[in-house]
Write a structure and sequence with these properties.
By secondary structure, the protein is mainly α. The protein has helices at residues 2-7, 18-39, 51-65, 70-86, 90-100, 108-121, 126-136, 141-157, 160-174, 180-198, 201-217, 224-237, 241-252, 269-282, 286-299, 306-319, 323-336, 343-349, and strands at 255-258, 262-265. A hairpin with a 3-residue loop joins β1 and β2 (262-265). α4 (70-86) runs parallel beside α6 and α5 packs antiparallel against α6 (108-121).
C-alpha cells in the first residue's frame, strides 16, 4: 500500500514525492562521504626543485614502497621513477619501472604508466614500446599519451601519407575501446592537413568520415564536441555552408542531463552559435542572422564573443537599411563594450545617429 501511495500522481498533503525522497537520501550519502573523506585527506605532494632534493625524494618513495602493498606501492614507485627521469637518472628509473612491472597485473593504470615511461626514456625502439602500451592497455590515459608520442615518432621518420597509412592500420587493428575515438580524431585532423597541402579529395573523405565516426559512434567521448566543431570549420572552409549548419545544429543541441548536477553545456557552444550566425549572413539570410546575434549575449552572458556578436548585429542593421535599430544598438555597444577592438568602427557607424 505504501509503495502505491508514493507512486500515485495524486499524493496526499505531507507526503514527499519519490524523486524528492531519493534526492534527500543521495545528498545525505554524498555529504557523509565528504565528511568521511575529509578525515583521511592527504597532504598535497611536495614540490622538489633542485636535483639534490628530487633524488632525495625519490629515495624516500623507494623506501616507502618497500613497506606498502599493491597499488600504493606502485604509486610510490611511479613517483620515484618520475623524479629519477627528471634528474636524467635513466638507468635507475629503468630499474625502478622494471621492478614495478613484476607486480600483479590487476593494477593496469600503473603498469601502463610504467611501460609508457620506459618508452619515453628508451634510447631505441620507442615506436614498438609505445605500440605495446596501446595494444596491452588501450583503456588507460598512458595509452592516449603513447598514441600522441607514437604519431610524433612516425612524423619524424615517415612521410605524411605514410604516417596516415600507419594510423589507419592501427585503427583497424585496435577495434572499439577507449582509445578508438582518439585514433579517429588524430586521423581526421591529419587527413584535413594533408587535404589542404595536396588538394587530394581522398584525404577530404577520410577526414570527414572520421569526424562523423566520432560524433555518431562515440556519443560519450570527450572528443565529440571537438570533432563536431572541427568538422563544421572544415566544411566552412570548403564553402559547404548548408552542411556546416547541420553539424553546428548537432553541436548546439548537445546537452548531457544529470539528475543531480543539471545540464552540461559544451565549451564550443558560443563559438558554434556565432559561426551559425556568420553562415546565415553569407547565405544572405539576414533575418536568421539578426535573430542569432540579437539574442547571443542573453544566451552566453560571459562569452568573449559578446562584442563580436553585438558588432555583427550593428552591421546587419546598417546592411538591411534599419537606421533606428542600428543607432539603438550602436549606443548600447558604446555603453557595454568600452574596451572592445570594434569601438572606433562603431563610433564611425553611429556618427549620423541623433543624441
Amino acid at each position: 500500500m505504501a509503495s502505491g501511495k508514493l507512486n500515485s500522481t495524486t499524493s496526499n498533503r505531507g507526503q514527499l514525492p519519490k524523486t524528492k525522497v531519493f534526492l534527500i537520501l543521495a545528498i545525505l550519502i554524498f555529504s557523509r562521504g565528504l565528511i568521511h573523506c575529509s578525515k583521511k585527506k592527504q597532504k598535497a605532494l611536495p614540490r622538489h626543485i633542485s636535483k639534490k632534493s628530487k633524488l632525495r625524494a625519490a629515495e624516500k618513495y623507494l623506501s616507502k614502497a618497500k613497506k606498502q602493498k599493491k597499488s600504493q606501492k606502485n604509486n610510490s614507485l611511479i613517483r620515484a621513477a618520475r623524479l629519477q627521469i627528471e634528474t636524467n637518472n635513466f638507468k635507475q628509473a629503468e630499474k625502478t619501472l622494471n621492478h614495478l612491472l613484476k607486480t600483479p597485473a590487476e593494477d593496469k593504470r600503473n603498469l601502463a604508466r610504467a611501460l609508457y615511461l620506459l618508452a619515453r626514456i628508451a634510447p631505441k625502439n620507442k615506436t614498438q614500446k609505445y605500440l605495446k602500451v596501446i595494444k596491452k592497455y588501450p583503456d588507460t590515459v598512458a595509452a592516449i599519451d603513447s598514441l600522441y608520442f607514437l604519431i610524433k615518432q612516425w612524423k619524424s621518420t615517415f612521410t605524411s601519407s605514410e604516417t596516415l597509412d600507419k594510423l589507419r592500420r592501427l585503427q583497424k587493428s585496435n577495434g572499439i575501446n577507449n582509445l578508438a575515438d582518439n585514433i579517429a580524431f588524430a586521423i581526421a585532423k591529419f587527413s584535413e592537413q594533408l587535404f589542404y597541402k595536396t588538394k587530394n579529395h581522398k584525404y577530404l573523405n577520410i577526414s570527414i568520415k572520421n569526424y562523423k565516426k566520432i560524433w555518431f559512434d562515440f556519443k560519450k567521448s570527450p572528443l565529440r564536441d571537438d570533432a563536431l566543431y572541427n568538422h563544421a570549420l572544415f566544411l566552412i572552409k570548403l564553402k559547404k555552408l548548408k552542411k556546416a549548419l547541420i553539424v553546428l545544429d548537432v553541436l548546439l543541441d548537445t546537452k548531457e542531463k544529470s539528475w543531480i548536477f543539471g545540464n552540461y553545456n559544451s565549451e564550443f557552444l558560443d563559438n558554434a552559435l556565432f559561426k551559425k550566425g556568420q553562415i546565415f549572413l553569407k547565405l544572405k539570410k539576414y533575418k536568421s542572422a539578426i535573430k542569432i546575434f540579437s539574442s547571443f549575449s542573453d544566451r552566453f552572458k560571459t562569452s568573449r564573443l559578446n562584442d563580436d556578436a553585438a558588432f555583427e548585429l550593428i552591421k546587419l542593421y546598417a546592411l538591411t537599411n534599419q537606421p533606428e535599430l542600428k543607432c539603438k544598438y550602436s549606443k548600447r555597444f558604446l555603453n557595454n563594450h568600452k574596451n572592445s577592438r570594434y569601438l572606433s568602427r562603431v563610433k564611425t557607424l553611429s556618427k549620423k545617429c541623433a543624441d
